Amino acid sequence: MDLDLSSDSAELTASLVDVESVSGNEADLAALIERALRGLPHLSVHTDGNTVVARTSLGRPHRVVVAGHIDTVPIAGNLPSRRENGLLYGCGSCDMKSGVAVALRLAARLTQPRPDVTYVFYDCEEVEAERNGLLRVSRNRPDLLQGDFAVLMEPTGALIEGGCQGTMRAEVTTRGKRAHSARSWMGSNAIHAAGGILDLLRSYQPREPEVDGLVYHEGLNAVGISGGVAGNVIPDECTVTVNYRFAPDRSEARTSVRCSPVTRWRSPTPRRPPARAWTTRPPRRCSRPCPGLRGPSSAGPTWPGSRCSACPR
Questions:
Q1: Which residues 6+ apart lie within 8 Å of 65 measured at CB?
Q2: Is residue 75 helix, strand or coil?
Q3: Whether pLDDT at 285 is above 80
Q4: Hey, which residues are catalytic here?
Q5: Confidence class of residue 280 from pLDDT cuts 50, 70 and 90?
Q6: Are the beta carbons of 154 and 96 closer than 8 angstroms?
Q7: What integer is the mean pLDDT of 122-143?
Q8: C-alpha distance from residue 188 to each of 191, 241, 270, 273 (Å)
């Protein structure tokens, strides 16, 4: 199979979706992208693991970087791709193989762009930051990422978004006491005790701070829960995984265990520390000056629909 970069965006997106590329398993798709780009004489192509970088070298005074990740979240019965009522469905079709398709078509068709252009197709965006291909290239070959302006092709509903939220994950654990379920009163149910954590999450009111004229919408959500021993045993441990999305007015240090309200929660029967937290990606302010992305409270022109990447869609 080869990628046809002359096909329309929908067809190319479907072709990309049909190549499974869950984080850590991007090798097949990266190889297809590399092969397609190496056939374009106006581009030089470089690889770093499963990240592919293609660049024009026309001697222009400015360079634009267009980037997108090629990995997806785990498959959920949504491959291969399908079309219904004019819409394309499939794992990664929105986030973000449609954006990758647009970038690939630009790479193929713009042989004489006004600025030089760097196209970056990178791996492991959907997982912890240390595995991120963009971070790896920035360490190994920072020269490949140099540019005057950069656009990440994440799905935004065709709006321009500036800045991004940081993300922290925490595991909050309740402790109990095992017992046979026929004598449940002799134990303490750790899963029931986790109700306090879920109650706190349900009542959470997100902050909406304004940073450099852009309003960010934070979030605090349970993204996983685990516990249980057997069908006839009262569980003695339950762990709730919480994801905290925070605005760039808070540093990573300030979003440590003591900062997030859920990780300050205490189990009624603690025997070990109930929570551990780690930041997987720091927040980023919108680069300034940036006249196309200034928010309504900033001086200068504003693009219609400009907003921060934290605003609900």
A1: 117, 118, 120, 145, 147, 149, 150, 151
A2: coil
A3: no
A4: 71, 125
A5: low
A6: yes
A7: 93
A8: 9, 21, 12, 18
